[in-house]
Write a structure and sequence with these properties.
Blueprint: H1 19-26, H2 30-35, H3 41-48, E1 64-67, E2 73-77, E3 82-87, E4 93-98, E5 103-108, E6 114-124, E7 127-137, E8 143-150, E9 154-159, E10 165-170, E11 174-179, E12 185-190, E13 196-201, E14 207-212, E15 216-220
Antiparallel strand pairs: 1-2, 2-3, 3-4, 5-6, 6-7, 7-8, 9-10, 10-11, 11-12, 13-14, 14-15
Length: 223
């Protein structure tokens, strides 16, 4: 989301702070107040909790979403077999991307050039038999590459900091690593017997965390 939506300045260039931030500043040290004089958007959002925008996205629940690196786009995934990309400032629908199965997870490439979406690629008797990941170009919105190798619904996705790999977790409890440039599934690791639902990579690219129904696991992936 664009920073100007989360902060404002009056014509004289001074911060236009909401009452909760003014109260926060008045109760803290001079050093801390000086640190926040530039009105960082995270302080405004965390203290004021302003509802900037609401819009109808999918006819079903929206279990997955991700902002583009520059904050201008918001991608949403849902079980209606589509991934949708929105203008985060206005809520305008930019693109609707079809999937051949129900999906949850979405993640933007570090430079914003690709969007990954996870879904159930094959099901039988309402049970997912094969999960997949689609990589979309954010320039043309065409399909860049299709990734396979998961035995169940992809629940979470994350790119490594370098952008070389895309990682995903599925309902069978496996953590998968795919190479972006050719789509090869390099390896899969069993993380839990109860399914995996969430994944996150640290900003420095060294650690990866997975969450399941029974535990959180931390993995060292960088040197």
């Amino acid at each position: 989301m664009n920073h100007y939506l989360l902060r404002s300045r009056d014509p004289g260039g001074k911060c236009n702070l909401c009452p909760c931030i003014r109260n926060f500043m008045s109760k803290n040290s001079v050093r801390l107040r000086h640190r926040y004089l530039t009105c960082p958007h995270y302080l405004y959002h965390s203290l004021c909790w302003s509802n900037l925008l609401s819009f109808w996205a999918h006819p079903y629940s929206v279990p997955g979403m991700d902002f583009s690196p520059d904050g201008s786009l918001l991608a949403t995934g849902a079980v209606d077999r589509t991934v949708k990309v929105w203008n985060s400032s206005t809520g305008e629908l930019i693109q609707s991307l079809p999937q051949d199965g129900q999906g949850n997870a979405v993640a933007f490439f570090p430079d914003g050039g690709l969007l990954a979406s996870g879904y159930c690629a094959k099901s039988e008797n309402y049970v997912c038999q094969e999960g997949g990941v689609l990589l979309w170009s954010t320039t043309t919105w065409g399909l860049f590459r299709s990734l396979s190798g998961s035995g169940n619904w992809i629940e979470g996705l994350a790119f490594t900091d370098s952008g070389d790999l895309v990682t995903g977790v599925d309902r069978n409890g496996y953590l998968h690593f795919w190479r972006v440039n050719d789509g090869v599934n390099l390896y899969s690791i069993k993380t839990s017997s109860y399914g995996a639902e969430a994944i996150s990579i640290s900003d420095d690219g060294f650690y990866l965390a997975t969450g399941s129904n029974d535990k959180v696991s931390l993995w060292l992936i960088g040197q």
